[in-house]
Amino acid sequence: MLCVIGLNYKNSSIEEREKFAVQKPEIGFTARRFFDTLNLNECVLLSTCNRFELYCALGAKNRAKSVAAGIIDYFKAGFGPDDERFYVLFGEDAARQLFKVASGLDSMIIGEPQILSQVKHAYSSASEVKTTGYLMNKLFHQAIKIGKAARSETAISRSSVSVSGAAVAAVKKERGGLSKLSALLIGSGETAELALECLIKGGVRKSAVISRTLEHAEALALKYGATAYELTSLYERVRDYDIVISSTDSPHYIIGYEKYAAAGSSRSKGSQIIIDLAVPRDVDPRVSEIDGVSLYNIDDLAVITVSAVSERKKEAAKVAKIIDAEASVFLDWYEGRPVKPFIEKFRAGIEKTVEAEIDKFTKKLPAGASVPEKSLNALKQAIINRICDGPISRARNCPDKSRIHDCILNFECFFDPGCGTRCGGRKK
């Protein structure tokens, strides 16, 4: 049974989501832990700033509640599996959820570009620790295909709107422009780079990058003409910039209240804007209590109006059509899975019967007479296909999915002369 268990920005606050945050290097390890301790058949863990979702294959639908309870207990979230913040979806609904996520339709900012790479990373991490199989492989290949199609066949991602772009838009809204402002980026990952790119394009006066690894900061700074610093110098510099945007994988605050309050500044008087794009948060929320500081977190950006978002909403209908078409393909495959082994058994039984009859036929030929082997093989395949194609096609395309179980029983009984009790037939 395909299932997804999780929570996202629509039904939970950043304070709640950060309890479930799994940093990028730990995603595979955590997926494997859930796989082992929760007795899952397969699983892939997707953890981003805006969501925590565990896609899994369960032996039975009624196991979902205990799996949800196990996840909540692992993170010590402080609420139960029936809490409205937690959602549990099955089958087609679970598949559609992933398809919407991969295409950007379920993002805080519709069509934002980073989510597809995050879905790919979640899947590759699970593959590395061997928690994927038959179902997850098909599901995530389909989702990645949809994500690519959404971006190549529609304009859902063609403007520069992203979480990072929304952060820069928030600065512009508060300060009226960037040309007189300086900016400090904390972090050197994809989100930080997107933010720096938006700042440079917006005309920021000067910029700097600070990172735990100086080489990473230097590489990013060189690319955009910024200055690079090590994280150890953070409090010497953090109050010297008009804008601070932080996006790291740290499990703890990068900017603490006491140290920030005590930090000196070479900047002339004026407000400082700090934007925290991390989950868990990089900035102690008490920093917002300090005079002259405007602090935004990722949830605050949801209310920032960005003109390109309305354009993306127009493209969402096109993406929804792509999802509908691909979901139909996946659903046909998903619902036909139980029939596959019995189709193979049915065909193997027919092949055995036909081969036996052809063998009898050749043995009855007059002495010295023969039929070319190629002709016999062609005849054999034609007979097998003629017998099998109709029943197999009807089983695969049965419009009433609830009758698939009956099809399976009929296949099982076809070569079972003792049948009668399982499918309702009569013993001979």
From TrEMBL:
Keywords: NADP, Oxidoreductase, Porphyrin biosynthesis. Residues 319-402 form the Tetrapyrrole biosynthesis glutamyl-tRNA reductase dimerisation domain. Pathway: Porphyrin-containing compound metabolism; protoporphyrin-IX biosynthesis; 5-aminolevulinate from L-glutamyl-tRNA(Glu): step 1/2. The keyword Chaperone does not apply. GO terms for biological process: protoporphyrinogen IX biosynthetic process from glutamate. It catalyses: (S)-4-amino-5-oxopentanoate + tRNA(Glu) + NADP(+) = L-glutamyl-tRNA(Glu) + NADPH + H(+). Residues 5-154 form the Glutamyl-tRNA reductase N-terminal domain. Its EC number is 1.2.1.70. Pfam families: GlutR_dimer, GlutR_N, Shikimate_DH. Substrate binds at residues 48-51, 107, 112-114, 118. The active site is at residue 49. Catalyzes the NADPH-dependent reduction of glutamyl-tRNA(Glu) to glutamate 1-semialdehyde (GSA). Possesses an unusual extended V-shaped dimeric structure with each monomer consisting of three distinct domains arranged along a curved 'spinal' alpha-helix. The N-terminal catalytic domain specifically recognizes the glutamate moiety of the substrate. The second domain is the NADPH-binding domain, and the third C-terminal domain is responsible for dimerization. This is Glutamyl-tRNA reductase. It comes from Candidatus Wallbacteria bacterium GWC2_49_35. The gene is hemA.
